[in-house]
From TrEMBL:
Name of the protein: MAPEG family protein
Lineage top rank: taxon: Bacteria
Keyword field: Membrane, Transmembrane, Transmembrane helix
Keyword field contains Transmembrane: yes
Length: 127
């Protein structure tokens, strides 16, 4: 199985890690209404919740881009490298979000998006 598909799994887990941080850092977590609880958070817990949301938003395009790259005949070594780079950019994005480094966080977001675009167009440049 290509490494890029394992990267899809890692990207799917990143939002769960972020909400775990929010739950651990915020005041007593209420599982009866988790969205309302998260909306009331501030500071690190709020930023972790926002990072979780953004991971969910970035995931579909990345996952589809990996599939397009693989099924479209993209060079698998390049596809794997781009997928790994995406995961690294998203981990760095999370760190920047948690640390409240807004400008660097935006750079990591653009990097991740650019890597998803690069994955999506891989089949066009594979030959």
């Amino acid at each position: 199985m290509p490494i890029a598909l394992w990267c899809v799994l890692v990207a799917a887990v990143l939002p769960i890690v972020c909400v775990g941080i929010a739950k651990a850092r915020g005041p007593r977590y209420d599982n009866r209404n988790p969205r309302a609880w998260l909306a009331q958070q501030t500071g690190l817990a709020s930023r972790a919740g926002a990072a979780q949301q953004n991971h969910f938003e970035a995931f579909p395009f990345f996952a589809v881009a990996v599939l397009v790259a693989i099924l479209g005949g993209g060079m698998i070594d390049r596809v794997n490298l781009l997928a790994i780079a995406f995961v690294v950019a998203r981990v760095l994005y999370t760190i920047c979000y948690l640390a409240d480094w807004a400008a660097l966080r935006s750079l990591m977001w653009f990097t991740g998006f650019g890597l998803s675009v690069a994955l999506f167009v891989q089949p066009a440049f594979a030959h």
